Amino acid sequence: GRKGGHKGRARQYTSPEEIDAQLQAEKQKAKREEEQEEGGEGATGDPKKEKKSLDSDESDEDDEDYQQKRKGVEGLIDIENPNRVIQTTKKVTQLDLDGPKELSRREREEIEKQKAKERYMKMHLAGKTEQAKADLARLAIIRKQREEAARKKEEERKAKDEAAMAGKRLQSLSLNK
């Protein structure tokens, strides 16, 4: 037959009787320690009832002082790190929505930028900025150029009309002869 691997050769199984004996021994040891801590009160009263009452008190305290289960080595070492942010959950009743919100530096800078841009646009529309003055001067020059161009077109059109009228007069005079 086949031999199993080296890990399974020396397996030993405990019988249910041995397990029960170990559990009873642990219970008795725990009872003795409790009696020693209570200073003999456990011997006069019923230890099971006292244990239950102590357990119920502890469970109430556990509910009130609930802390998250610590991960890794956190439970072994107490660290005082001033930079560490401890996340606390707040109830809806504890939230203060009406109070002033503290903005981050980036948010403050963004708001300042927007306000500055709005101020600049108001000044620009009023014609008080250098760029607005330059734009208005440029527009004035362009208006003058367009007016001159429109005048020249009008004069040319009038000249064409007069030439066409003169041509028609000559034609009508030649037809009348």
What features would you describe in this structure?
The chain has 177 residues and is mainly α. It has helices at residues 16-38, 41-44, 47-64, 105-126, 130-176. The model is unreliable at 49-65 (pLDDT under 50). The N and C termini lie far apart (144 Å). The protein is elongated and about 150 Å long. The protein has a domain at 104-176. Residues 81-158 form the Casein kinase substrate phosphoprotein PP28 domain. This is HAP28 protein. Residues 1-10 have a biased composition (Basic residues). InterPro entries: Casein_kinase_sb_PP28 (IPR019380), HAP28 (IPR039876). Residues 1-113, 147-177 are annotated as: Disordered.
Q: How many H/I helices?
A: 5
User: In which range does the helix fraction lie?
Assistant: 55-70%
Helix-strand sequence:
HHHHH
Strand percent estimate = under 5%
Mean pLDDT: 79
Report how far apart the termini are: 144 Å
Backbone shape: elongated
Q: What oligomeric state is this?
A: single chain
Tell me the Rg in angstroms.
Answer: 50 Å
How many distinct beta strands? Answer: 0
Low-confidence stretches: 49-65
Main sheet makeup: none
Structural class: mainly alpha
